[in-house]
Amino acid sequence: MDAPRGAEGGPQEPPEWLDAYLDYLATQRRAAPLTLENYRRDLLRLDALRDGRSPVDLTSHDIRRFVARLHAQGLGGRSIARVLSAWRGLYRWLIRHRRALEVNPVEGVRAPKSPQRLPKALSPDQAQALLDAPGEEPLDVRDRAMFELFYSSGLRLAELAALEVDGGLDPLEGMITVRGKRAKMRTVPVGKPALAALQAWFAERAAFVPADGETALFVTRSGGRMSPGAIRSRLAAWAEKCGLGVHVHPHMLRHSFASHLLQSSGDLRAVQELLGHASIRSTQVYTHLDFQHLAKVYDAAHPRAKRR
User: Fold this and answer.
1) Cα-flanking dihedrals φ and ψ of residue 175, to 5°?
2) What is d(CA 258, CA 164) in angstroms, rounded to the nearest whole number?
3) Catalytic-labelled residue, pool 144, 234, 254, 255
């Protein structure tokens, strides 16, 4: 949703409470830039819907009415749940830090239910075809190292983009330490193919960055840090070149890492730790993928599953 419009049609300045809350999230909660961007967008929805009324004057009835309007505009249940989470956090801040009101009007308000969408994952054969694709140019070497690391360690896009050349990776132990959501650090294994791909990239990287230049592990042709958007674009182009027939994005490699690991080990808690999920509920979605895999095996192999 666009920013609210002024009387002459131009966008209004964000209200003071919105900027103050985002500043709190950035400085006190150490929220990532992408998280702040998402919060700003969702809070601007509230700013537009409140119709000039102060947020502290809104009631639970108003919030439910806003939810109904967003749903009528085509926003799905998952998106509305995210919006409500942003609003709920704002009101908690207003209560605790501004003493502006006593009751959070968003508490108890729920988003409309929507069908559960399972994350899409590559098959093991598709993952192997993607990572074994030919390409010996320096930027191909960089891309293969990025994609191997995604699939080997289950990193988030923001975690990979934030990696530094002199920090986090321990080649001898085969481990890498990353800063995840809410600045939480975790250490995850790096497989031998990913380590080999990273070593190949280290040999090429020096040609792009002077000794005192960019500190990012993955850099562009001009020597700057690879942005999340650039990484996403390179992966999509790489998958298309491989002829996989599906759109591949960084989170799909994370999903593939989790589902393939769970299929092999059955250890949900270990997958939770490796993914950096705060709650096991976030990881349980991969049990559905695992059951789908088992169901396909059953349908293909069990004599009583086949129609005669």
Assistant:
1) -135, 155
2) 24
3) 254
